[in-house]
Design brief:
Blueprint: H1 6-36, H2 40-63, H3 73-81, H4 86-109, H5 112-142, H6 147-151, H7 154-168, H8 189-192, H9 196-238, H10 248-259, H11 272-288, H12 290-308, H13 334-341, E1 345-346, E2 353-354, H14 377-382
Antiparallel strand pairs: 1-2
Helix pairs in contact: 3-4, 4-5, 5-7, 9-10, 9-11, 9-12
Length: about 375
């Protein structure tokens, strides 16, 4: 019996491949065409509306008592956002208590004995808190005229991060631990209990860090360049003699660990020249570690000097003198606020606010003043509610 030629087997393999791959290629093309033609923005918008409608129905048709189902958006806003009202303070205090209990549950669940015996009880309570925080987050968006301003504000992002990990854990169970981010919501304690002095000091620190960020970035770039050079130099002397120095990136890692005075000890030079270089790098680390601290401290002292002179620039609006005007119903008088702002001039260099009429140049640094407030995004970001 004659042996069949190799071409025969090649043709058989090609036929099998065609029979298997052709339907897969056809299906891939159809799916690509289908998904490529979808309007994902419209789909996302419809999904958001569907979730919003469900939450609205759940709150106003199921959870709320009938006598409270006619509550207006303005009343919800005063309860949720106004901590200076009795109802608002009670709401925020109970919210803090709920966050504290939730944090205790997350910590207890990390113990093996508790997790083995009370796993499902703790899991159920955690999801109960998650649903409650989700409904509260929806109400915060529902009662605002400009919800996007709140969503992308400092507290809005924190509120979202407090509930997102719980739903993400349905796909990635390990992210359940990230629900501890809810503790960030306790930052509202300064506003709830009228700790304006603490909140004002935090904004002074924020302003100091903002003014220091350029210098610190330049300093970090310098340290990074130095670490690359030192890593290459130490690799030149240690290569072939030190098994731990496998490559230049590994040597750069050693340089960063050493120059920052962390000193893990997992990589150490073995040659005399390498040890001498290590000594220089450690001394260099001690000499430069105080540089960013000095930059921030200097800007902080400058911020406090400006505050004593009454030159607060980027503090929250509620701390400005012109914001103290109140209408009879206790709300902000926006018209008087705009009038007070008309004559203000801002220094784009140092942030000084000049209130004297006719001033064209900053009395602190001599820069030409502008009507536009620099870094206004800080006020919007931290005051998005």
């Amino acid at each position: 019996m004659d042996k069949k030629s190799p071409n025969f087997f090649v043709k058989i393999l090609m036929l099998i491949g065609y029979v298997i791959l052709h339907p897969l290629v056809w299906l891939w093309r159809k799916m690509s065409k289908f998904f490529g033609g979808l309007n994902y923005r419209r789909i996302g918008s419809r999904m958001a509306h569907a979730v919003g409608n469900f939450l609205h129905w759940l709150i106003f048709s199921v959870l709320l008592p009938k006598k409270h189902r006619n509550i207006t958006k303005k009343e919800i806003y005063r309860i949720i956002f106004k901590a200076d009202t009795p109802a608002g303070k009670k709401f925020d205090i109970w919210l803090l208590i709920a966050i504290g209990i939730n944090m205790v549950l997350i910590m207890l669940d990390s113990f093996d004995a508790v997790h083995a015996n009370l796993r499902w009880v703790i899991k159920g309570l955690e999801w109960l808190f998650t649903i409650a925080f989700t409904l509260e987050y929806y109400l915060r968006i529902y009662c605002l005229q400009k919800p996007w301003k709140y969503i992308f504000s400092f507290y809005g992002i924190i509120d979202f991060l407090s509930i997102f990990p719980a739903y993400l854990s349905l796909l990635i169970p390990a992210t359940q631990t990230l629900t501890v981010l809810r503790v960030l919501r306790t930052l509202r304690i300064f506003r709830i209990f009228n700790m304006k002095r603490f909140l004002l000091e935090s904004f002074h620190l924020l302003n100091a860090m903002r003014r220091s960020i350029t210098k610190i970035l330049i300093f970090m770039l310098f340290v990074f360049i130095v670490a690359i050079i030192l890593g290459a130099v130490i690799y030149m002397f240690e290569n072939g003699k030190n098994p731990a120095m496998k490559s230049i990136p590994t040597a750069i890692y050693w340089a960063v660990v050493t120059i920052t005075t962390v000193g893990y000890g997992d990589i150490t030079p073995v040659t005399p020249i390498g040890q001498f270089i290590s000594t220089l790098v450690m001394l260099l680390g001690y000499s430069i570690i105080a540089v960013p601290t000095g930059i921030v401290v200097g800007e902080t002292m400058r911020e406090h000097r400006m505050a004593k002179r009454g030159d607060d620039t980027d503090v929250p609006e509620e701390f400005n003198e012109y914001e103290e005007r109140k209408t009879e119903n206790g709300e902000r008088d926006a018209e008087s606020d705009d009038t007070a702002r008309e004559d203000f001039r801002y220094c784009p260099h140092c942030g000084h606010v000049e209130q004297e009429e006719g001033s064209r140049y900053c009395r602190l640094c001599g820069t030409l003043l502008s009507k536009e407030k620099p870094n206004r995004w800080i006020d919007d970001f931290f005051g998005g509610e």
